[in-house]
Each structure stands twice: as structure tokens, then as C-alpha cells.
Amino acid sequence: MGRLTGFRYKEIVKRLKKFGFRFDRQAAGSHEIWFNLTTGRYTTIPNHPGDIPEGTLRAILKQARINPNDFLNS
Question: To pair with 32 at 20 to 30 A between CA atoms, which of 2, 12, 24, 43?
Fold first, then answer.
């Protein structure tokens, strides 16, 4: 198991809000688009029950240009 496992949707959203991301719009299915007005970056977050897979979380952080260590320490 990697360090970025065991995160649920609500915990990811809570941490992304600390980085300035806000809900922008609903995307296809259960996915949401979040936007950071300061950086102009978008990221897509799946709103699924259960833990978000580590690879998916890494992709979210890459889109948002957030360092995984900064995310873990937020």
C-alpha cells in the first residue's frame, strides 16, 4: 500500500479546499470539476463511495499541480 491510499472523497475535497480549489460544475456521471481561481487549474474528482484508488488520487494531484507530500501534510 502506498502513502496515498485510504482516502475517501470527502477527505480529498477537504484537503483540496485548503489549496484553494472550489466546486465548479458537475461532469459526466458522478465526476465533478473543481477549479482554483488563483492558479487557474482544474481537476476532476470522482464522487464514489469507498476509497479512491491511489493512481486516481495521483492523477488528481497531478492535474492540480499539488505535490503529494504537500497534500499529505495539509
Answer: 2
Specify the pLDDT at position 74.
87
C-alpha cell at 58: 495521483
Please write the tens of the pLDDT for every residue from 19-48. 999 999 999 889 999 999 999 999 999 999
Q: Identify the CATH number of the domain in which residue 30 sits.
A: 3.30.920.30
Which range marks the domain in which residue 39 is found?
9-72
The Cβ of residue 20 has, within 10 Å, a number of other Cβ atoms equal to 14
Give yes or no for a contact between 64 and 21, defined as CB atoms under 8 angstroms apart.
yes
